[in-house]
Amino acid sequence: MRRRTLLIGAGVAAAGTALVGSTSPYAWAQDDSPTEFDYVLGADDAPVTVIEYASFTCPHCAAFHADTLPQLKTNYIDTGQVRMVFRHFPLNGLDLQAGMMATCLGEDLYLRIADILFSTQQDWVGSNDQLGALSRIARQAGLSEEAFNQCVNDQELAERIVASRQQAIDTYGVQSTPTFVVNGEVLAGNRPYEFWADTLDPLVGS
After folding, report:
1. Cis preceding-peptide flag for 25 (omega within 30 of 0)
2. pTM to 2 decimals?
3. For residue 88, what is the enclosing H or E element?
4. In order of start, what are the domains of the chain with their CATH numbers?
5. Mean pLDDT split into 10-residue runs, the chain, 206 residues
């Protein structure tokens, strides 16, 4: 029988504490190779791989997804020059719940629900009933209330996401979101599109 993951009310503090220094039996890639738990946009043979470590409650991550990612997708990802790998890096218990919910919706819906979570971030993060707000988003995406409750109380899934977070810390020294790894080089913080163009063009041979 799985233990319940306490992520709301007093449990948020406990969950946040548990994120620091956690260990797990799960193995993770030591380089930029996508794992079975990653979500990927772009061609497998793209010359540049960009890993994004993001958290759903992070306003800077939301800004990147709204203002910069669409241009990157049009000019670099859709043209086969860049492969974008998305990895969840929870900062707190609510982040962890949101990531679990997105994961439970499956690969086909993950990036779409990520866009919804970022675009409505102020609404559900600022809600008096954050879990209820997440549940409503999940139901709109096709996840029943029962399935949502099972998902956010899945201890194994929580440990898997926390393991990915710890791997990011151990491998790349990630401490904040968003953090990007561009062909192995770590770039922290939300940067404007012009910065990305200057960074990517030499790598893709433009």
Report:
1. no
2. 0.83
3. strand 82-88
4. 27-204 (3.40.30.10)
5. 28 36 35 68 93 96 96 97 94 95 89 94 96 94 93 93 91 94 93 96 87
